[in-house]
Amino acid sequence: MKRESANVPTQSITAINKTVMALILITAVSSFAISAQADTSRVHQYFNQVDTQNHQGNYSVISQVGNNNQVNVKQSYSAAYQTGNFSHIRQYGNENNASIAQTGGRNIGVILQAGNYHTANVSQSGSQQELSTYVSQTGTRSDIHVSQSGSGYRNIGIEQQAFSGYTRPVTVETY
């Protein structure tokens, strides 16, 4: 008995495989999107004058992965000689809350949250000098509040690791 092979083009099998894989991927993504709860991000940026030649302005980058994360960013500068503010918030986990409020120019605020139930608040003011704050939270349930004001060149860096559950809140204020 002689066996004959069917002449099925391999291109059509590859196309069918790709179509099936695409349908599986679409189903998986849509079922995840239905079960995931939305994160909230709110950004307010104000200025009096725009320097279109030097492209000075306020910039904010927000990245959220998880459920029920909240972000609130308010940035403003008002003088032509001031450079805008920069903020970056990255949340990886669930139920995290971060806020940055910056007035004046040349402020930099960064909040990185990995884990669940973190709270971080940064409030900066300024003059012609740079104020910068870096906050990193990992684990579960850490609470950090930072406030700065005044004549610049201040740099605050806080890293809190809360792997055993709860940590004591951290509050830093300078004027």
TrEMBL record:
Sorted alphabetically, the Gene Ontology cellular component annotations on this record are: pilus
Query: What are the entry keywords?
Result: Signal
Q: What residue range is the signal peptide?
A: 1-38
**Which family would the database say this protein is a member of?**
Belongs to the CsgA/CsgB family.
- Mind listing the GO biological process terms from this record? cell adhesion
Q: Which InterPro entries match?
A: Curlin_rpt
The keyword Signal appears for this protein:
yes
Pfam families according to UniProt: Curlin_rpt
Lineage of producing organism: Bacteria, Pseudomonadati, Pseudomonadota, Gammaproteobacteria, Oceanospirillales
Please identify the protein, giving its name as recorded. Curlin associated repeat-containing protein
